[in-house]
Amino acid sequence: MNKFIDLHMHSMYSDDGEFTPTQLVEKCHAAKITIMAIADHNSVKAIDEAKKAAKEYGIHYIHATEIDCTYNGINLHVLGYGIDHKNPIFNELEENILKQELACSEEKLKLTNQLGFALDKSQLDALSANGVYTGEMFAEALLNDSRYQDHPLLKPYRENGERSDNPYVNFYWDYYAQGKPCYTEVVFPSLKETIKIINENGGVAVLAHPGNNLKGQFEVFDEMIKAGIQGVEAFSNYHDEDTVNYFLKKGREHHLLITCGSDYHGKTKPAIELGETRCIIDEHEIEAQLREYQLL
Prior knowledge:
It is a single chain. This protein is of the alpha/beta class. Helix content is 39%, strand content 14%. Helix 5 packs across helix 6.
């Protein structure tokens, strides 16, 4: 089955991304991806550069962003496709979240060191371009600190450990995600507000990797559909077969836009390759839906 669509990847404009927008386009071209979208966290800065580069390679480029939001206390990621990225509201959103994340970074450092470490701020500054410290950065700093070579807490993330497939992001999920020991709260817009922003700017609101954010409570997705979610990323690198089938069935049942995305970041998620979306249907079906939603 041909794999030529990847609608979820991150550039350096995401705190945990590695490559420039142009480099991502070049990588997509090498991977024979012909329909792509860079969906940076709460940012639209990659769009103009990526769109220009994609045109040179004959790649269909779809405007996108990935907005952090909340629904009844659950942190979510919602993808906005086909947005008018020139609206200042997207920059305002990014600046507001950046301000909060800078404050949270200091708190994350304190909480991390309470786990039995003595990381210095300079170790994180060497990894961060803007002063924001992500859970993945803490993982990278700790795993490369010779003082903690044999630290028991880090063993699962080292080679052959049970969490070593994507050690940095797994460390994030285990210690910095909602409800974990080093979690710090950022006030994100609500799901309703996020859908409104996306729709008012000509976009389609799609729930990203629901298997991650709705783990153990998939039934909540039905409520989100009623709240206005228009699509679902049924095909994600994070989803096992049962999860894929659950959200594919839901998407078809409710006539939602069904998308596929690798969530490629580069070094942060080394086990994920571009185009690796676990899609089990002919991607021409997804292409047809994208045209139906006027995203191509």
